[in-house]
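Standup notes, structure subgroup. Blocker cleared on the zinc ion input:
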Amino acid sequence: MVVNGALSAINMSTSNWYDVLEVAETASKDEMKAKYQELLLRLHPDKVKEEDEDASKSVEDVIKAWKILSDADSRRKFDADLKLRREKAEDANFFRIITFKEWQHDKEDLSLCRCGGEFDFEEDDASEDVVIVDCDTCSLAIKVTPY
Ligand SMILES: [Zn+2]
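Run returned:
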């Protein structure tokens, strides 16, 4: 489970345009523009030596990052996408994600952990919110969503 989470984090960082531009996610357009221009200079083919670490970062990526983040609409879209990917990465840490209905339907099976332990979820525990239930034996947990 932890491995899944780590993998997601790696996948995420490879296409996080804020990381490419080396700015905070809260950076203003001016801050991003300054960084973008600085990066273009730094990554200019005339300046980058082959053994330079920064050669791993391509000018194309920096230009793409700037295109996406400098436009309010596409930045908003990317922010939403990032949020979604983070939620998914978080979900990778759960042994099982089910809705309350699914649990009601198949209590016996869904309450069983792969270690042989049990997720101690009762009908009364259902709420409007997401409920996280730990296994009574190991460190795994399930997530029960209201819908
Ligand atoms: Zn368990």
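Discussed briefly. The two ends are 24 Å apart (CA to CA).
Next: hand off to the docking folks.
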